[in-house]
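Folds vary. Our protein:
___
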Amino acid sequence: MRFMGEYIRGVVVKLHVTPEQEVMFKQNYGCTRKTHNELLNKYKAKYGDCNKIPTKNELNQFLNESKKELPYLKETESTSLQQARDDLHKAFKNSFKSKRHNPPKFHSKKKTRPSFRQTIRKDKRPVEKNTLTLRKHGEVTFSTSVEYLDLLNSPDTKFNNITVYYDGLNHYASFNIKTQPPEQLPLTEEHIGCDINSNKNGWLVTSEGQKEFFDVDHDNQMIKHINRLISKCRNMSRRWKKLQKRLQKWYNKRTNQLNDYIEKLTYNLVKKYDTIVFEENYSTIKILIGGEENMIFPLSRFIKRLKDKFQLYKPGADGVQFVKPHNTSRTCHHCGHINKELKVKKRNWKCPKCGKILDRDTNAAINILNRWFNGDGLIKYLN
């Protein structure tokens, strides 16, 4: 996202908190969640389920009333409660603006990630070397890469806000910052078509025959194994708590692997190609390894990251494009013949007209790229 020659980005670091700060963080998490629920409850008590967006003044009045009714809210950091108020107001606006956004809901302890956000004063820098200064919580040391450490300590970096959250094992700080945009990548005049699959042939197959696999089968097997062990333990026993932490580690590892894989793959694709073409009907897909479900891959997030990286690194490129999906697998990219007898499970097939042996997914990716070129899929693009 660009902003007057700068762009906004996020940087996440791992915090190393003291036992006293651990207690204060958890109190702030709870108070932020309680504030959201109290404001939403007061709104429903006043307006019911009517279609009305509350004003910021109304929500601020609800917040002041909640502080009087619940004195312990005054003991926590004030701007984090104000941020919860602003987030609720934004959620109301989004729900009325688009049907894709659901109305605000009450936050539960089990389903809501513990977090709070603090604003930054313009005349103060919250980071000095590897130390973060938070209001009410004092100085907290953190660890991150050398690249991010230099970025956070750069005098050109401007801080918007800091979000502190807990993943079940560790506390993290996510910085929302403004900084200079990175150097743009040169245009390569290379284009590629991509076919999305839910089979063992690769979840993504390109018109150049490249096949992408993402395997977290070992992680899934460990998660299933630990869940079986937990089911045999007494609830809240010492062994149950130990296994819960172990389970959370594997969940976090799987999530981190997925995030890292998406970031690296999207960057490499954007660096190599100026145009990446997909079928229109993309959504989340189930990645299959050996015929068994491996995990649900967030394809929508993958496409979004591709678009973001094109906007950031190659704003002059065509970027992500879409074509109609009809008969991309059944059409021979050599002669244009449509094989209507082709079965879904058949991965390789011979064209009845020209006799060419085709890989189903690579052939579909080539047809996807051809359709972007001229809209009819008859252009000769040979791999």
Summary: The longest strand covers residues 6-16.
